[in-house]
Design a protein that fits this description.
Helix content is 47%, strand content 11%. It has 664 residues and is an alpha/beta fold. It folds into 3 domains: 5-271, 2-enoyl-CoA Hydratase, Chain A, domain 1 (Alpha-Beta Complex), CATH 3.90.226.10; 299-479, Rossmann fold (3-Layer(aba) Sandwich), CATH 3.40.50.720; 488-627, N-(1-d-carboxylethyl)-l-norvaline Dehydrogenase, domain 2. The strands form 3 sheets. An 8-stranded mixed sheet has the order 12-11-10-13-14-15-16-17, with helices on both faces. A 6-stranded mixed sheet has the order 1-2-3-4-6-9, with helices on both faces. Strand 10 (305-308), helix 12 and strand 11 (328-331) form a beta-alpha-beta unit. Helix 11 (273-287) crosses helix 25 (632-643) and helix 19 crosses helix 24. The structure holds (2S,3S)-3-hydroxy-2-methylbutanoyl-COA and nicotinamide-adenine-dinucleotide. The site of nicotinamide-adenine-dinucleotide (NAD) has 23 residues, from helix 12 and helix 15.
């Protein structure tokens, strides 16, 4: 930097790949922020480093390490739509694997996709204890493209490789070591530990490169069983089964033949509709927590949170807050309700223990962080209070009157209302700039969607605090404007109405549900209502009718009036045998609806699904044109994270745009 001063000099371009020498060990440092994605410059840098170090007689081994928050997080997803530029990643991995000096990958943060493939090209892998390793390609609608399906089974055996590759779920370093994916978990300074590991390794004969290691092939029945299992779990996503086929080839064919098959599959899927959809969702999810219009707005601190109401939603929200480590004050209306609220919370944490997500000790600590009381004074120092009491305007207003009295003037006050107008809920509240809607989804400690609903009075920092909360809770936030049902429930209403309209035209209920499941939805519209209960929407319609609105009678109304509220009453749109959640077509429903239904219109399942998804997208268009949603991708995130829409279809708005592009 001679001749310039630090103040005036342009920032010196840091090399993407730098080489340092520690005696006879070279350290190759990758520095390509934010996540060391394998863009062209990085691939070229690694390619050149192999040449440089092979030619350097002083170097006996090479440690590969990354700067910043993570090891190489994979291929550069932004390059996917573009023509590939050499050197191609499989060639870079092969070059590292074939280097004259052994390379040792030193992993921290995440080694994902192409990052793990580079690491598998190295002769050894060591990792910090909290590092994560995985092959998430199937979640992007593709398969690993640089040997992941061929090298993984050579390190871990086929069974573990099937798990890693077809689920896309990463594993932590200790488990990776147990599986054979890495050679050691190392504590302390990663570079020093990796250098020490290298020196030690050089004292013994080297293991063969991964490509030369054997793999034991399971028999045909193993593959049939895996195919069946994976097809069921994939619900229409194609990548997991294609990845399985690659693994089978890896077990049964030569290394080179399997590599060629993997590459062919990768290139085929990369241009597919499913991959395009999953890429769009990938970027939408990453953009959602930090929206551009709030970039310059600092959120308020979130240290202590209150929840009012300990029912289904309040308990779920409190559990989510505790999972994020926040202390919670839970307010209920009387002592019995306090006890019920605590019992609800206990049941949620016990469920996590049963599923192996929490240890009993952790569950106890979660519960110990909740102060449950009837005394609003306990909210005096809360930074945020979320109201989740009965969906009645009078009850909610009374709660906010109390909150207005006891809370700090700068405490954010939020309502979890599903359908009420937040402006009416907040009427009369002092300092209305701190008020906001935070619409969680049930079960609130599991569902990842959070609709954030500002009123015209909501201050920017209050809005930013809603997004900060979503980040703290690891949820996907979507900003919604005020209308009945916000984004998600408004589309749900249109979707259900359209499904009922098909029933009126004579399409069998079970055909509609089967069509939507076949489309990849978690459930069909009618079985989902049976699960959640038909009475909630019924009561809402009745309320509107009593308020003088013209709400035409729905088929659901007829069922509820006949006592058919869903599974909890033994029947709704279907019948249920006691203790059996499988829906059975119902003669009683056929009889009840007889006068409403036209004689059998035939409609194939694909046409049913296309029609209903087009209805969702049409409502989405209306929502956009009214400014209720800020972008089509926000609507897609709502449907995917709140309503079980298949991720690999990208959401109703993505699907509609794709369809329009193909048609036009
Ligand atoms: N390519 C391009 N940009 C990426 C990226 C990637 N792979 N991963 C992350 N980003 C951007 C992201 O959009 C965001 O941008 C910023 O980095 C920080 O991300 C051949 C085919 C590594 C665990 O799927 O899981 O390898 O918003 O907020 O919370 O077989 O990023 O700042 O502008 O998520 O610290 C496989 C995906 C690719 C990894 C870090 N790899 N990334 O989490 O940061 S396919 C992945 C992650 C592949 C080969 C194939 C996470 C992370 P901006 P972030 P984070
Ligand atoms: P719920 O009936 O299970 O729970 C309501 C709780 O509020 C009860 O425990 C009740 O004792 C308590 N409560 C009533 N008045 C109170 C008061 N004055 N002070 C303190 N506590 C009081 O209802 P829920 O399903 O949890 O719904 C709560 C809110 O969340 C509603 O506004 C609802 O629309 C909304 N919501 C519900 C869902 C869902 O799927 N259940 C989803 C999103 C939003």
């Amino acid at each position: 930097m001679t001749g310039t001063t630090a103040d005036t000099a342009p920032a010196a371009a840091r090399p993407v790949v730098a080489i340092d020498r520690h005696g006879d060990i070279a350290v190759v440092t990758v520095d390509n922020p934010p996540v060391n994605a394998l863009g062209q410059a990085l691939r070229q840098g690694l390619w050149d480093a192999v040449g440089t170090l092979d030619a350097d007689p002083r170097v006996r081994a090479v440690v590969l390490v990354c700067a910043g928050r993570t090891f190489i997080a994979g291929a550069d997803v932004t390059e996917f739509g573009k023509p590939p530029v050499p050197p191609h990643l499989p060639d870079v991995v092969a070059r590292i694997e074939g280097a004259a000096k052994p390379w040792i990958a030193a992993i921290h943060g995440s080694a994902l996709g192409g990052g793990l493939e580079v690491a598998m090209g190295c002769r050894f892998r060591v990792a910090a204890p909290d590092a994560a390793l995985g092959l998430p390609e199937v979640t992007l609608g593709i398969v690993p493209g640089a040997g992941g399906t061929v090298r993984t089974p050579r390190l871990t055996g086929v069974e573990a490789a099937v798990d890693l590759v077809t689920t896309g779920k990463p594993v932590r370093a200790p488990r990776a070591a147990a599986m054979g994916l890495i050679d050691a978990v190392v504590e302390g300074d990663l570079v020093e530990a990796a250098i020490a590991f290298a020196r030690e390794a050089l004292t013994r004969p080297l293991p063969p490169p991964v490509c030369q290691r054997p793999v034991a092939a399971p028999d045909a029945s193993f593959w049939t069983e895996q195919e069946r299992r994976i097809a069921k779990a994939a619900k229409g996503a194609v990548a997991p089964l294609r990845a399985l086929a690659c693994l089978r080839r890896a077990a049964e064919a030569s290394f080179d033949a399997a590599l060629a098959f993997e590459r062919e599959t990768f290139l085929d899927l990369r241009g597919s509709d499913q991959a395009a959809a999953l890429r769009a969702v990938f970027f939408a999810e990453r953009a959602a927590p930090r929206p551009a219009h709030l970039r310059d707005v600092a959120p308020l601190p979130l240290r202590r949170v209150g929840v009012v109401g300990g029912g289904t939603m309040g308990a779920g929200i409190a559990a989510a807050l505790r999972d994020a480590g926040l202390p919670v004050v839970l307010i209920e209306r009387d002592d019995a309700a306090v006890a019920r609220g605590l019992a609800n919370l206990t049941a949620l944490f016990d469920g996590s223990v049963r599923r192996g997500r929490l240890t009993p000790a952790q569950a106890e600590a979660r519960l110990a962080g909740v102060t449950a009381t009837t005394d609003y004074a306990a909210l005096a120092d809360a930074d945020l209070v979320i109201e989740a009491v009965f969906e009645e305007i009078g009850v909610k207003r009374a709660v906010f009157a109390d909150l207005g009295r006891v809370c700090r003037a700068d405490a954010v006050l939020a309502t979890n209302t599903s359908y009420l107008d937040p402006r009416l809920v907040a009427e009369g509240l002092p300092h209305p700039g701190r008020f906001i809607g935070l619409h969680f989804f049930s079960p609130a400690n599991v569902m990842t969607l959070l609709e954030i609903v500002p009123t015209p009075d909501t201050a920017p920092e209050t809005l930013a605090t809603g997004f900060a909360l979503a980040r703290a809770l690891n949820k996907i936030p979507v900003q919604a404007g005020i209308c009945e049902g916000f984004i998600g429930n408004r589309i749900l209403k249109r979707y259900r109405a359209a499904a009922e309209a098909l029933v009126r035209r004579g399409v069998p209920i079970a055909e509609i549900d089967a069509a939507m499941r076949g489309h990849g939805m978690a459930m069909g519209p009618f079985e989902a209502q049976d699960l959640g209960g038909l009475d909630i929407a019924f009561l809402q319609r009745e309320g509107a009718r009593q308020a003088g609105q013209d709400v035409p009678e729905t088929l659901g109304d007829i069922l509820v009036r006949a006592g058919r509220k869903g599974q909890k009453t033994g029947g709704g749109w279907y019948d249920y045998q006691p203790g059996d959640r499988r829906p059975q077509p119902s003669q009683a429903v056929t009889d009840l609806l007889a006068g409403q239904i036209a004689p059998g219109a035939a409609m194939d399942r694909a046409a049913i699904a296309d029609h209903l998804v087009a209805e969702m997208a049409a409502e989405g268009e209306a929502i956009l044109s009214e400014g209720i949603a800020r972008a089509p991708s926000d609507i897609d995130l709502v449907e995917i994270h709140g309503y079980g829409f298949p991720r690999w279809r990208g959401g109703p708005m993505f699907a509609a745009a794709r369809r329009a592009a193909v048609a036009g």
